[in-house]
Amino acid sequence: KNPTERAFPQSSGSAEGPSDVTITAPGHTAHAGAAPASAPAWTSPAWTWPDALAGVVPPLISPLTEAGEPDAGALRALVEHILAGGGTGLFVLGGCGEGAWLTLAQRAAVVRAAVAASARRAPVLAGCMLPATGPAIEAARSAADAGAAALVVGSPYYFAVDAPAQRRHVEAILDAVPLPVLLYNIPPATHHVLSPELVASLAAEPRVLGIKDSAGDLKAFQAFTRIKRARPDFRVLQGHEAVMGASLLCGGDGLVPGLGNVAPALFAALIRAARGAELERVAALQEQIDSLGALHAVEHWLPALKAAAAHVGIGTGMPSLPLQPLSPESRARVAALVDRYAPGVESRD
Fold this sequence. Notes:
- It is globular, with a radius of gyration of 19 Å.
- With 349 residues, it is an alpha/beta fold.
- Helix 3 (72-84) crosses helix 4 (104-118) and helix 13 crosses helix 14.
- The chain has helices at residues 3-7, 49-52, 72-84, 104-118, 133-145, 163-176, 187-190, 196-202, 218-225, 244-249, 264-275, 279-292, 301-311, 328-341, and strands at residues 90-92, 124-127, 150-153, 181-185, 208-213, 235-238, 254-255.
- It has a 7-stranded parallel beta sheet.
């Protein structure tokens, strides 16, 4: 056995998770080649990890030029829009950021542009959501070189993998790069679940900051929140917009909304309402989010989201190939939804 296998308890790999979850306290054998547990991650006086991950951390779109290359100017405008709307972190190269579809050079350009635009006001987390460990490590090293503050790591995919393989994947990335990691559970994209047991065992590593859960399974989400009993600084963020209000009320910390590219202030308001126990306000804001989310059903959800961002002056609406921009008729439908359900967001069409 290698040291990382001794460090983490074995997981049963259950998709639903246990009725309760515990973790081994930190203090295990350090990963070879990784930063010591006591060494600080990339930080700034402007933010801390516990606070940044307890707010709005939108998964940024990757604005592209008409030629299909990253648009640094549009990304800078997006960062300003998100931070002005109450965003506390910037997650690039996730699903909304087309991370798995961009080239290595394009991904590095996106990270560099986001880091420059953030000017250390908020952390930049870079997705390494590639199907196998080798490409994910390559992406992780590139993101670290480009200045990312943390990595976002999910399950391998394309081939079937079990919980031990998922653990080896995460551990190998931790071994390769000294940055902290936010786990990402997104079964609709990876076709695999990160179980609460596996996540609890990985949380014994101090550099595992928390998890973004986009499965929409509130039972599993609540199991993730119970990890905080043994690891209070572990953060649990909801990425499924339809259950964001409920997730905050049942112990979730932060939100990772794709619609935060368009209306970040809407989600910041939801967090404030939930923390203030304003239940009617939470319900009203969730209804507004659901209504705005109808734009995801206008043709393909990703060009629709990019069209919504373009409507408020960010980017051109161009997705990466093989997807195409929305038709003019569909862009008008998206614009109408934004105008109705994201009031106060300036239209620049």
